[in-house]
Amino acid sequence: MAFPVQEVVAEIRKRVVGQDVMVERLLIGMLTGGHVLLEGVPGLAKTLTVHTLADVLHATFSRIQFTPDLLPADVIGTMVFDTMHQKFTVRQGPIFALIVLADEVNRAPAKVQSALLEAMQERQVTIGGTSYQLPQPFLVLATQNPIESEGTYPLPEAQLDRFLLKVRVDYPTRTEEREVLQRMSAVGESIPVRRLADPAQVLAARADIHAIHLDARLADYIVDLVRGSREPASVGLGELAPMIAFGASPRASIALAQTARAHAYLRGRDFVTPEDVQSLAPDVMRHRIVLTFDAEAEGIDTDSVIRQLLGAVPVP
After folding, report:
1. How many CB atoms lie within 10 A of CB 98?
2. What's the burial of 136, exposed, middle or buried (CB within 10 Å: 0-12/13-18/19+)?
3. What does CATH list as the number for 5-201?
4. Is this model's pTM higher than 0.85 or not?
5. What pLDDT, in 10s, does the model give residues 118-151?
6. Are residues 283 and 239 in contact, defined by beta-carbon separation less than 8 angstroms?
7. Cα(66)–Cα(49) distance, integer angstroms
8. What residue spans define the domains of the chain?
9. What is the spatial distance between Cα 124 and Cα 244, in angstroms, rounded to a whole number?
10. Which CATH number describes the domain made up of 212-312?
11. Which of 77, 84, 132, 312 has CB atoms 3.0–4.6 Å from 92's, for a disulfide?
12. In whole angstroms, what is the distance from residue 276 CA to residue 260 CA?
């Protein structure tokens, strides 16, 4: 059975008002097997949206609140001694779920981030010297608060690169906020949603997305965009060179191709267009470009760099 894209989106909208970009990016992450980092201030329905996605997809869900005193065993599990059988057994942690919400992921120390990194990259965890495969389709959806720095740990670049997308979640419009107020006042409890798909359909959809046609000229376009972040002079943006410490890695090219295919799939097309690439470029590249102090001093952020790249690289 084909993945019911429109029905899933409509069902999520029963609980979540607005935030269409976030909903679409979460679906893209799920349908490509890529983890998603959500950045936004508290109260923007990030947790609600992730929980609703799990409900609609009939997927097991775990929420892990990351704190400075969190230990790796709190995430992946540990060995416990069974007094009845006089032996150690494995107690699996909350990471053993199809959808894992890592709430305020940047509040945990390096050891916890290292354990999470293995789960994200290898789809497995190591407990007591033995590796255990995580259930599929496994997805980490992480949130972080951009306005609080006290008690936080900047995510390592290697871990940031493992996130397929970094999505900036904005405030709702006035109309949307009015609708939120009406719904919450009228209901007072969680709005029920139907289960419209299952993990098997998600895995089948991934195969369909992989088969979506990506023209060779669009592949060149993707490579030129990503390489432009490393060699801005090659696309006529030599003035950006002092602003960029490190450009996006080749993993960004792979991610941009994957997400562009998924973007086309969500729109019912079997081919990728330049608009698909341009729509996903900021979310794919913003966390993979490291700017210099000069850029920060001049108020230049990664999104402005990406906008200049999109304006400079010829569209096929």
Report:
1. 20
2. middle
3. 3.40.50.300
4. yes
5. 888 888 888 877 888 888 888 899 888 775 666 6
6. no
7. 19
8. 5-201, 212-312
9. 34
10. 1.10.8.80
11. 77
12. 5
